[in-house]
From TrEMBL:
A Pfam family per the record: WHD_3rd_SelB
Protein name per its UniProtKB record: Translation elongation factor
Organism of origin: Campylobacter vulpis
Signal sequence residues: none
Sorted UniProt keywords: Cytoplasm, Elongation factor, GTP-binding, Nucleotide-binding, Protein biosynthesis
GO MF annotation list: GTP binding; GTPase activity; RNA binding; translation elongation factor activity
InterPro entries given in the database record: EF-Tu_GTPase, P-loop_NTPase, SelB_WHD4, Small_GTP-bd, T_Tr_GTP-bd_dom, Transl_B-barrel_sf, Transl_elong_EF1A/Init_IF2_C, Transl_elong_SelB
């Protein structure tokens, strides 16, 4: 498919040209008909058996520039329309600047009202001299005499369809919302990236509400799925009042919100001030902070928003000042990256050149404890496979493919030093990648396993790493006894198992097996999910509680005051007491039956 837009000065014949091409009357509003100007975007199509073209007709009035910009974000091809008699006017040139900033390069020059021109050759040359681009094609037309209309239509139908990268993720800025009886909420927009299918789950990023695609239409045709580029109408399972023009629909899990980004900006006399930031159909105030003046009105800048934005690497934008085009640019760093200014500028240079290999290298050096690739699409417009392929070609790195992390090899040395300290403190430590990762929040199990596997002082058996030369059976027995002694020493207020394991340098799996063995042998009793107590200490305490009950009932508050227990321990021991047939519970108090 192709989305073809119109651009040009007011009253140069944009809407009349669309009507001549496909019979669609775009100016349907009463005010449009009375004033004979286009006020809103209009959408239409031109279809043959094997080709479908979508049209976006934009207004040319200077006060409707924002409307033109929101339509231009969807253009694949532009019909740049100039009245051959008037030549290039103010809005002709401003619309051209929008097209240039948005990277619309396929521009067809349509010279209108040629039936009224007495010097077409001379006028054409004058117009071409004022253009900053070379048109794909030039057409001399008249909607009054149909001059050039058939030739233009045939040319448009001959254009090759555009196909976006199949790795791109569905992103869809809403341009209209309405509700139809019997159908429900409908949103329309230009699908510029990705694809979407019927019954698929999506998310409105602005509201964080999940939605389901109930129906897909492209110019009145119902479809099971559709891919960019295309004009699309989606029926959604939500109240239309919950959505707004400019809201962004996408797939869940790919985009995070940020209040500031870094970008390349092209604008003459840019300054540190507020501008209107336009992206897709969203328009909001933003503060520019110049990071570096490059040359000829080009800058690296930080852009700050009052509301969080879900922007993507390489996304184009327009800046407005006092309602006029100031400039525009492209998003380079859509996330808040904590780098000093020197490193940030180096990163922006690399991102501007799309030199991802050196960008990854810079980031892995800056983040000494790991650089994640989970957000690789938002940050670099790369899927996980593409990002991992680049990462694996870096030098001096460990790439954790499962957890999508890049580590400088110095991270492995950090872990080895940590392991050495553990063994120095406890030669009978039982280690695993999982237990090591729990103690080093920055490290994934993958890099922990790599560090453990590459230590010559360690042996491996039954999923456990331990000091070389230590007999494994004796190691298990020693740690079992140490665990039991630890539980006995803590008497009635024993720590949670994972704290016990950490103090003894035991991995959790081994520790759990040892606790099960102690419980099975009757040495330890499990009172609650994470409370294990020495059986002899428990029985002695039960006798103490029974003696107390002869004089007074027991409840949580009494247990907390009498034994300095937290609520957790007080409840656990009272519930254990409930198992005795001589105890009765009434109104959260425990009594001896013989006392009632």
């Amino acid at each position: 498919m192709l989305i073809i837009g119109t651009a040009g000065h007011i009253d140069h014949g944009k809407t009349s040209l669309i009507k001549a091409l496909n019979g669609f009357e775009g100016d349907t509003l009463k005010e449009e008909q009375e004033r004979q100007i286009t006020l809103n975007l209009s959408f239409s199509s031109l279809e043959t058996e094997d080709k479908k073209l979508s049209f976006i007709d934009t207004p040319g009035h200077k006060d409707l520039l924002k409307t033109m910009i929101s339509g231009a974000f969807g253009f694949n091809v532009c019909l740049f329309i100039v009245d051959i008699n008037e030549g290039l006017k103010a809005q002709s040139l401003e619309h051209l600047s929008v097209l240039e900033l948005l990277g619309v390069k396929d521009i067809i020059l349509v010279l209108s009202k040629c039936d009224l021109c007495e010097d077409m050759e001379g006028k054409t040359k004058d117009i071409l001299r004022g253009l900053s681009f070379k048109p794909l094609k030039i057409f001399h037309t008249s909607t009054h005499t149909n001059l050039g209309i058939k030739e233009l239509k045939d040319y448009l139908l001959s254009l090759e369809e555009k196909n976006t990268d199949e790795n791109y993720i569905f992103r869809f800025y809403i341009d209209r919302i309405f509700s139809l009886k019997g159908i429900g909420t409908i949103v329309t927009g230009s699908l510029n990236e990705g694809e979407i299918a019927l019954k698929e789950k999506i998310i409105c990023l602005d509201t964080q509400k999940e939605l389901i695609i109930k129906n897909i239409q492209n110019h009145d045709s119902n479809l099971d799925k559709i891919k960019a580029p295309a004009r699309v109408a989606l029926s959604l399972n939500c109240d239309y009042k919950s959505l707004q023009k400019g809201f962004l629909l996408s797939k869940k899990g790919f985009f995070k919100p940020f209040l500031q980004i870094e970008a390349y900006v092209k604008a003459p006399n840019l300054s540190n001030q507020n501008y209107i930031f336009c992206v897709g159909t969203k328009q909001l105030e933003a503060k520019i902070h110049i990071l570096k003046d490059l040359q000829n009105g080009q800058f690296f800048a930080q852009i700050r928003f009052k509301k969080p934005m879900y922007l993507c690497f390489d996304e184009k934008f327009i800046l407005l000042e006092n309602g006029r085009v100031k400039g525009g640019g492209v998003v380079l760093n859509p996330v808040n990256e904590p780098l000093n200014k020197e490193l940030k500028l180096r990163l922006l240079n690399l991102l501007y050149d799309k030199d991802f290999s050196n960008a990854f290298n810079l980031l892995k050096n800056a983040h000494k404890k790991g650089f994640g690739l989970l957000s690789s699409y938002q940050r670099f417009k790369l899927n996980h496979s593409q990002a991992l392929e680049i990462a694996k070609n870096l030098k001096e790195v460990f790439v954790d493919e499962k957890n999508l992390n890049i580590y400088d090899l110095s991270c492995v040395d950090l872990l080895k030093t940590h392991i050495d300290k553990i063994l120095e403190k406890n030669p009978y430590a039982m280690l695993s990648a999982h237990s090591l990762a729990l103690r080093n929040a920055w490290a994934s199990e993958g890099i922990c396993a790599f560090a453990l596997e590459n230590m010559s002082v360690l042996e491996f058996k039954n999923g456990i790493f331990f000091k070389k030369g230590v007999d494994f059976e004796k190691l298990q027995e020693k740690n079992l006894n140490a665990l039991y002694e630890k539980i006995k020493a803590q008497a009635l207020q024993v720590e949670a198992p994972y704290n016990l394991y950490e103090s003894l340098e035991l991995d959790r799996k081994s520790g759990d097996l040892m606790l099960k063995k102690l419980t099975k042998e009757g040495l330890v009793v499990r009172l609650a999910h994470n409370l294990f107590v020495d059986k002899s200490a428990l029985l002695a305490f039960k006798e103490q509680m029974l003696n107390l009950l002869k004089a007074t009932p027991l409840d949580v508050q009494t247990m907390k005051g009498k034994f300095n227990f937290s609520r957790k321990y007080a409840i656990a021991y009272l519930e254990y007491l409930d198992l005795d047939e001589n105890i009765i519970k009434k109104d959260e108090k425990r009594f001896l039956k013989s006392n009632i």
